[in-house]
Amino acid sequence: MANTYTLIASSTVGSGGAANIEFTSIPGTYTDLAIFLSARCSGSGANGWENGSITFNNSTSGYSGILLVGRGDLAPVSISNGTSAIDYGWYASDSGTTANTFASNFIYIPNYTSSNNKSVSSDIAQETNAARAIMGFNAGLWSNSAAITSVKLTNASPQTFVQYSTAYLYGIKNS
User: Fold this and answer.
1) Which end of the chain has less Cβ packing within 10 Å, N or C?
2) Sorting pLDDT into bands at 50, 70 and 90, what band is 3?
3) Distances from the Cα of 150 to the Cαs of 9, 47, 101, 104, 166, in angstroms?
4) Is residue 55 one of the residues assigned to a domain?
5) pLDDT at 133
6) Residue 36: exposed, middle, or buried by beta-carbon count in 10 A (0-12, 13-18, 19+)?
7) Looking at the 3D structure of the chain, how many domains does it have?
């Protein structure tokens, strides 16, 4: 169990929106990383949500994973991730959902400085007052021995994060 959470960095999207949220120059002084993301995007899909991806150190290879997602009006499904990013790593509410609601995401990255492959897990809860609300769990892997020094959260193109979307990056010490 983690003993300390230390805020490393935070980001709040301004009025112009943002294609991604990126944390750079992450220090190697912690055991694990945690990201709390509250996201709404510019999409207008019929589903009321859009998915986003996670990349580390600007790398575009070596990723794998799977998403298990349940939606109020459909049976649960699983979706495999791509290899250029951890796809479906988080979700954002869009204009098809209740106004001014944001999806809640928790992204956990254990042993981010290890020379072993890096695992990542995400808990996703998209907010809306409709039956199409979703909950999901993503398990991903970055097959790379480099320590993670940057994390980028990217919307599915051409969506952007809207104003007041927020992300908080915490370092965790397990000692």
Assistant:
1) N
2) low
3) 11, 31, 28, 21, 17
4) yes
5) 76
6) middle
7) 1
Pairing of strands 32-39, 20-23: unpaired
Would 164 be classed as within a structural domain?
yes
Q: Report which of 8, 66, 45 is spatially closest to residue 159, judged by C-alpha positions.
A: 45
- What's the rounded Cα separation, in Å, for the pair 37 and 80? 22
- Contact assessment for residue 11 and residue 74, using Cβ atoms and an 8 Å cutoff: no
- Residue 24 counted as domain residue: yes
Q: What is the pLDDT of residues 79-125, one digit of tens each?
A: 777 788 888 888 888 888 888 889 999 999 999 999 999 999 999 98
CATH of the domain at 77: 2.60.120
**148 is written with which tokens?**
């993670």
Which residues, in sequence order, are bridge partners of residue 86?
54
Specify if 125 maps to a domain: no
Q: Exposed (0-12), middle (13-18) or buried (19+): which is 106, by Cβ within 10 Å?
A: middle
Instruction: Give me the domain span that covers residue 77.
Output: 4-115+143-173
Instruction: Give the N- to C-terminal CA distance of the chain in Å, as an integer.
Output: 9
DSSP assignment, residue 1? -
